[in-house]
Amino acid sequence: MSEPLNHGLVIAGYGRHFLVETPQGQRIICHPRGKKSQAVVGDRVLWRASQDEGTIERIEARRNLFYRQDEIRTKSFAANLDQVLILIAAEPEFSENQLSRALIAAEAERITPLIALNKSDLEAPFERAWLRLEPYRRMGYRVLQLALKPRAAAGSPAPASVGATPALVGQLQGKTTLVLGPSGAGKSTLINLLAPHAAALTGEISRALSSGKHTTTSTTWYWVDTTQTTALIDSPGFQEFGLHHIDAMHLAAFMPDLKPWVANCRFYNCTHLHEPGCGVIASIRSADNPDGVSERRYKIYSDLFAELSQPKY
User: Could you tell me if 172 and 69 lie in one domain?
Assistant: First the structure.
């Protein structure tokens, strides 16, 4: 008689190895049934015990899946998210193009995005960066200020919210949040501040999966509270963020500053690039239209449209 199916949560993975957490808190190494590794962190799965490990038999229905796709492959970050926290910093200077791509990917999956700008203690660079984010605040995105500092040395108590404002802690409470951001933005510092056992779990995963240095480039789930109602998912830093899974003709619908103007276009299949009577083109900010779409944002749209319109082989 085969072993019964068990419920579990995927909390880490590398290749064909996954660490699955049971409702009782036990962690089991599991492998997918068959050749394809379809599971991602955040998946609720049904697994069957096999000696001292397990086999993932089924992935339960997802609420959403946050991923990117370039010309060659798809990279899935995590599933079943409440929100995506995009962490950027005043220094090094963040890429507005990358920020926009992450926001579009979140909009496409109907996942709430939250932007946090770190290093508010660097006065001049922060002021410049905060000004660059003005269009995103006008779009209605929540943008928070942070000044993250690493925890004190071992043995020296430090509050879990050092540099993490009450506003951010409140936004995370009771939710599953994917933390996304480029290298140097302070992502590891934030995870270690809010999830004090993160380093220990990373070590445990490294030993369990025997993946050594590879574990640092995998996505990992951390519980923030003992009641396990708040979770952070740490993902690798990204340099590229492909959006090839999005139809170029639907792109404007995922950009909140462009979307309202689409209804004013003369043609239903307007690309918003050159057509006469285009509501989006007419909305570009000017002296006569100070509340319109910024030229930077329109350029991001036009560049992305060109990229997504390339033939797919």
Answer: yes
44: containing domain: 5-59
Count: domains in the chain: 3
The answer on 49 and 198 residing in a single domain is: no
Q: Show Cβ contacts of residue 73 under 8 Å, excluding neighbours closer than 6 positions.
A: none
Q: Are residues 177 and 288 in the same domain?
A: no
Q: What is the pLDDT of residues 119-139, one digit of tens each?
A: 999 999 999 999 999 999 999
Neighbouring residues of 248: CB distance < 8 A, sequence distance ≥ 6:
271, 304, 305, 308, 309
Nearest one of 312, 185, 302 to 255, comparing CA atoms: 302
Q: Is residue 280 part of a domain?
A: yes
254 inside domain: yes
Q: Are residues 221 and 103 in the same domain?
A: yes
* pTM given for the model: 0.89
